[in-house]
Design brief:
Number of strands: 6
Number of domains: 2
Radius of gyration: 19 Å
CATH superfamily of the largest domain: Metalloproteases ("zincins"), catalytic domain
Distance between the termini: 46 Å
Strand content: 5-15%
CATH topology of the largest domain: Zincin-like
Structural class: alpha+beta
Shape: globular
Strand order of the largest sheet: 1-3-2
Helix content: 25-40%
CATH class of the largest domain: Alpha Beta
Largest sheet: 3 strands, mixed
Order of helices and strands: HEEEHHHEEHE
Length: 169
Amino acid sequence: MRPSPPPDLADLYRSLNSVHFDGALPKCQLLWNPRLRTTAGRIDVRRRVIEISVAYHQSFGPGEVRDTLLHEMIHLDQHRRKVRVGHTPEMKRIARRLGLRKMFARDVPGRPSPRYRYQCPACSRKVLRRIRIGRNRSACAQCCNRHNGGRWHRRFVLVPVKSDRRRRT
C-alpha cells in the first residue's frame, strides 16, 4: 500500500486561517521538510515560514498535519497580536479551544533518544535532554512558576545527574 500524498499545505492554511482566525493571519511560506526529525513542525514568525515534518506526516497521517499546522498558526497569531510567543498558558487555552489533542510531538519517527539527565535541586524533578544544556542556563520551569512568579531563578538551575549505565571497557 502506497502512502497517501501529503495534503496541500497552502489550501489547509487558508482554510484554517478562515475558520479559526477570521482570515487575519498573514501569508506564509509553507514547506514540507524531509530533514525535520526532532519535531512535527516549526515556525519562524519573523520570516513567516512554517515547516512540517514529512516523516511525521507519513507515520501519523493528515489529522496530525492539520493539528501541527494549526499549532504553528497559533504561534503566528501570537506574533501578529504582539503577545509573548511560546507555549504560554494563553496559547494552551487557545489550542484546547481549537481541539488540539496534544502540544508536543515527542514520538517523531527517527527522533534521537535523550542522552543527558538533569534534576531540579528544589523538587528533584528529572529532566531528559538530547543535547547538553549550558551551565547555569536552564532552570526547573515548574519551580520557577510556582515559587518565583514564572521568572528564572538560580535556586532552580538544573544540575546534571550521573548516568546509571556502566561504561564498557
